Amino acid sequence: MVVASAVNHDNVGVAGRSWGAAIRVEAMTIQTRSAVDPRRDHEHKRTAVGYISEAWAEARHDGIDGDCLAQTCLFAALAELVSTYGEDATARFAEGLAARIRNGEFSLDVAKQ
Fold this sequence. Notes:
Layout: E1 3-7, E2 12-15, E3 22-25, E4 28-32, H1 38-61, H2 66-85, H3 87-95, H4 97-102
Antiparallel strand pairs: 1-4, 2-3
Helix pairs in contact: 2-3
């Protein structure tokens, strides 16, 4: 299987019930070179963010700490990528995360006053 990195520049806004801010999702995905319908992919990502937002809000309501949730979600996401694409492809994906974090791609949009 040939694995390539692709960047999806679609912004998907979802209001998390307990987060009080809009979440901007600009996801970089690892995918095979097979044809992917961008509309279907976008809709799947929008739906997935909805599921994660609801689960996150429910966990916060039950008293689970946000840091604990974040670390657990990162572990689960990376484990899924390793399971699907292997360690090397996932490591290449993760190498680019530091620069993206520093560039603000994962920062919540905060209203400036």
